[in-house]
Design brief:
two-stranded parallel ribbon, single chain
């Protein structure tokens, strides 16, 4: 879904345990991301999100 069109913003509304994976994948394709609470339930997984944002220049 993230590849065929140029998407500016992705809204992540999946179950908590998949938020970080969806956020990082969207950032890596060049999209900014909005997510519902909780970003994730695991501290180590939460660290992946700002790391991906810094690496890609995206906002998550």
């Amino acid at each position: 879904m993230l590849r065929p069109e140029r998407i500016d913003l992705v809204v992540v509304c999946t179950v908590d345990r998949t938020h970080d994976e969806c956020i990082v994948r969207a950032l890596e394709t060049g999209c900014d991301v909005v997510t519902e609470k909780l970003m994730t339930t695991d501290t180590d997984r939460a660290r992946r999100i700002p790391d991906a944002g810094r690496r890609t220049g995206g906002r998550g």
